[in-house]
Write a structure and sequence with these properties.
CATH architecture of the domain at 122-342: Orthogonal Bundle
CATH topology of the domain at 122-342: MetI-like fold
Number of helices: 16
CATH class of the domain at 122-342: Mainly Alpha
Radius of gyration: 44 Å
Structural class: mainly alpha
Strand content: under 5%
CATH superfamily of the domain at 122-342: MetI-like
Largest sheet: none
Helix content: 55-70%
């Protein structure tokens, strides 16, 4: 009996300390209440809410999409700028070396830093250049101006007339003509040297200035360039209005078409002048006498001779190369308002 009373007492004490003690089935008793709550199930004012197993973390702040995009654009700009700076150094570097080397005498040319100045001897080098072989360099320079100028003027006139006709007139076989013009782009110019040499030898043009001027007056690429530009620059309504007023086809081209094609003409002239100024293979084959050589072939002949007893021909070649670039620079500066817009021929209509 005493043992039974002790067991009942311990069970009643456990019930006081753990009100949510389950019954025999393991379920909570109906009358049990959760800790910290009163009989109605409401939280007591001073009770602390129990921690649950859910890990609550503060949401991370994401960077806006526009900021990352702007950073990417900024990085790409720096990459583009670095590439442009490297290309500019690659283009200007040889010209800077040529300018520095032209101011040096023979010992400084081989013993000092090639990218910086030493003793200034530019005027002495110019004097030696203009007096060597009775001033033949000035003769070469004049020949180059004549060959390049006359050939470029003739090519510009022929290309503008042909391009205008292809753009504004319709005739049978026009598509075949355009196919021949475009197909001629694939023929290298070196393949035409031997047949042209045989032709000029037969008709008596070998070793004459016409062997340099006449071939340069015809170029398929220039004709195609003028044709593309004329399609957008010369309105058909303007030509029809001129015909109604009684103007002939030649007058329409000379008074209207040629003026509207001035930008294309300047671009064609400039491109051919630069190519003709730097030509080497053509005069090497077709010109025999040194008095008729252009400046590039003449400087090459000096470079092949090396040095003689009085002058260092290497220094003369460097100084002559510097002088020969001056006309090209002047031409580019004087015609920049034309070629800036002319390089986009056909891109906009």
């Amino acid at each position: 009996m005493a043992r039974t009373n002790a067991t009942d007492a311990s069970a009643s004490g456990a019930a006081r300390t753990n009100p949510t003690h389950s019954n025999g089935t393991g379920a909570s008793s109906p009358g049990a209440s959760s800790p910290g709550r009163n009989g109605t199930g409401a939280s007591s004012p001073g009770a602390r809410r129990p921690r649950t197993g859910v890990n609550r973390t503060r949401p991370s702040r994401r960077r806006p999409a526009h900021s990352s995009a702007s950073e990417a654009r900024g990085a790409s700009r720096w990459v583009v700028l670095a590439v442009l700076v490297l290309l500019a150094l690659y283009a200007v570097g040889p010209l800077w070396w040529l300018l520095v080397a032209a101011t040096k005498n023979r010992p400084d040319l081989y013993s000092t830093n090639g990218l910086w100045f030493a003793d200034f001897n530019l005027f002495e080098n110019l004097g030696a250049l203009l007096t060597y072989q009775d001033g033949i360099f000035t003769r070469w320079l004049w020949n180059t101006v004549v060959y390049s100028g006359l050939g470029s003027i003739g090519l510009t006139a022929v290309a503008l007339a042909a391009g205008y006709g292809l753009a504004k007139y319709s005739y049978r076989g026009k598509g075949f003509t355009m196919a021949l013009i475009i197909g001629s782009f694939l023929i290298p110019g070196s393949l035409l040297i031997v047949p042209t040499f045989l032709l000029f030898t037969r008709i008596g043009l070998y070793d004459t200035i016409w062997a340099m001027i006449l071939p340069g007056m015809f170029g398929s690429f220039s004709v195609y360039l003028a044709k593309v530009y004329a399609e957008g620059a010369v309105p058909g309504e303007l030509i029809d209005a001129a015909r109604i007023d009684g103007a002939g086809e030649y007058r329409i081209f000379l008074s209207i078409g040629s003026r509207l094609l001035s930008t294309a003409g300047a671009t064609i002239f400039l491109l051919h002048f630069v190519a003709s100024w730097n030509t080497f293979m053509w005069p090497l084959v077709f010109l025999k006498g040194a008095e008729k050589w252009p400046v590039m072939l003449g400087l090459y002949s000096w470079l092949q001779r090396g040095t003689d007893s009085q002058y260092d021909l290497t220094g003369l070649v460097i100084t002559g190369a510097l002088v020969s670039t001056i006309p090209m620079v002047l031409l580019m500066v004087s015609m920049q308002r034309y070629w800036r817009s002319g390089v986009t021929i056909g891109s906009l209509k």
